[in-house]
Amino acid sequence: MARLEGKVVCLTGAGGGIAKASARACAREGARVALFEIDRELGESAARQINDEGGVALFVHADVTRDDSVREGIARAAEAFGRIDALFNCAGGSSQDDRPVHQMDLDVWHRTMALNLLHPFLMCRYAIPHMMEAGGGSIINVTSHLGLIGSVKPAYAAAKGGIISFTKTLAAQYVAYGIRANAVAPGSIRTERSILRYESGAVDPDSPAARERATFQRLYPFSRGEPEDIASIAVFLASDESRMLTGTTIAADGGRSNYLRVAVEH
Ligand SMILES: NC(=O)c1ccc[n+]([C@@H]2O[C@H](COP(=O)([O-])OP(=O)(O)OC[C@H]3O[C@@H](n4cnc5c(N)ncnc54)[C@H](O)[C@@H]3O)[C@@H](O)[C@H]2O)c1
Q: Does pLDDT of 85 surpass 80?
């Protein structure tokens, strides 16, 4: 039997890198997947690809930073598939304007928090009642190794750090309902907003973020990966194979969040 047979998984940011690969992996393992994505073209094309591969995917056009949009999206997914078993809250990202605190625009702080921290809260807010009704579920929140150790990008690091304690809280609050909550913290993954953007020269190699990245790269050779490296963790956490895991953060970062080596070298 496929590892996610009979399950329904909602994934956010599913037109892009990590979530799209995770949606394809979940579908290959028998899940029906709802792809929440703000970019219509990306979302439709990801859903088409999964359906062409023999899976079952529904594109849900949604801005996951907006309460009404998430409420309608979850209702649509539940109506189409009859249940919701897992969430993969993956939409997120940082901005080049995420500067040292005394130089940062307030708007950058609010936008970063909305996309990275408010969004998983909203997804949980509307999906949890469906999981309670089904007698259980698995929530997977995507953080970053920077959420574990801090970063030159204060808003992003704070939002991603917030996800980790939010995940622990969800785990405690809903354990009695059979609902698990875990997080995954990637290192550098080859996607549009990450390795590909830095390699294309779109980010100044002398910027603090590029220098921070280069240091990690040098010290932790296993810390660069492909979206599929995170997709396999998504499948594991969505499946019953991980039934003993709740409240944890899996650092898929080749050791980056073990900051000791950086500290020793400097
Ligand atoms: N790629 C990495 O190196 C890396 C490292 C650590 C953590 N992460 C985290 O992994 C997650 C996914 O990263 P990625 O590299 O796959 O990103 P990506 O940019 O390739 O994909 C993100 C997707 O989210 C969509 N999106 C953005 N705002 C949205 C909104 N308001 N509503 C709905 N969809 C929206 C985008 O259109 C895009 O398709 C992010 O949370 C990121 O912080 C990534």
A: yes
Distance 179 CA to ligand 1 centre (A): 25
Domain of 57, in residue numbers: 8-253+260-264
Residue 3 within a domain: no
Amino acid at 213: R
Q: What is the CATH number of the domain that holds 149?
A: 3.40.50.720
pTM of the model: 0.96
Does 160 reside within a domain? yes
Residue 213 has pLDDT above 90, yes or no: no
Count how many Cα atoms sit within 13 Å of the Cα of residue 38 in the half-sphere of its side chain: 11
Q: Which atom of ligand 1 is nearest to the CA of 116?
A: 41
Residue nearest to atom 39 of ligand 1 (CA): 16
Catalytic residue flag (residue 220):
no
Q: Is the distance from the beta carbon of residue 65 to the nearest atom of ligand 1 less than 6 Å?
A: yes
Q: Cβ contacts of residue 133 below 8 Å, gap of 6+?
A: 83
Average pLDDT over residues 25-37: 98
Q: How many domains does the chain have?
A: 1
